[in-house]
Write a structure and sequence with these properties.
By secondary structure, this protein is mostly helical. The chain contains ten helices and three strands.
Length: about 210
């Protein structure tokens, strides 16, 4: 196979032509630092190696770009990179950033748990579900959540006071409040206990 042309494209990519036909898009810098140029012969194995190098470079660049905006868990970062790169390249990129200390699931989980519990007012159950969604190990998630001393009933009171207090005068408003609280992971027993503080009926059911 002969490399017959290399045409620069957008986003740091170049169109690689082999034997007069378009073959694929490849990272421009990766091609420039390779030993190949237009007119050179390239074997299947050499082309595969060039493609892998290109993919890995693009994956690393995407990973660095993503973490420059905010911290990510390993799974979350890998999933995002896989939208524009192959699985192996994404995994290698994330593992390399982990080695450099730029990706740390424990640090991410602790920061994210604090945000979920204190800012978004999720229950520990709700926060745990979110952490697991991000790929955090179950045992690590539980260990970190145990570090936070939060009272679910107090969390529920704060949510009601800020959003639902005025709507508890009718059944529709109560149901809306209960649904919202349940979506945050609070148990029905805790929700009912707090709601009874805002209603005259101490045997309130929904």
């Amino acid at each position: 196979m002969i490399i017959t042309n290399v045409v620069p494209k957008r986003k740091g990519l170049s169109a690689l032509y082999i034997d007069g036909e378009f073959a694929l898009k490849i990272d421009t810098e990766t091609f420039l630092v390779s030993r190949f140029s237009v007119g050179d012969e390239i074997s299947d194995s050499e082309l595969k190696e060039l493609i892998e190098s290109s993919n890995e470079k693009r994956a690393k660049e995407k990973a660095l770009w993503l973490i420059s905006y905010r911290d990510h868990s390993k799974k979350e970062l890998t999933d995002k990179i896989r939208k524009t790169a192959d699985k192996d390249s994404a995994i290698k990129a994330v593992e390399r950033l982990e080695e450099l200390g730029l990706v740390n699931d424990e640090k991410f989980a602790r920061t994210y748990a604090e945000k979920l519990l204190l800012n978004k007012k999720l229950s520990k159950k709700g926060a745990k579900y979110k952490l697991l969604e991000k790929g955090i190990d179950r045992e690590l998630a539980e260990e970190i959540l145990d570090e936070f001393q939060v009272d679910p009933k107090e969390q529920i009171r704060e949510i009601i006071e800020s959003k639902y207090k005025s709507s508890l005068n009718d059944e529709k408003g109560k149901r809306r409040a209960v649904s919202a609280l349940q979506r945050k992971g609070f148990s029905w027993s805790d929700i009912r206990t707090v709601l009874e503080e805002y209603t005259e009926d101490e045997s309130y059911e929904i």
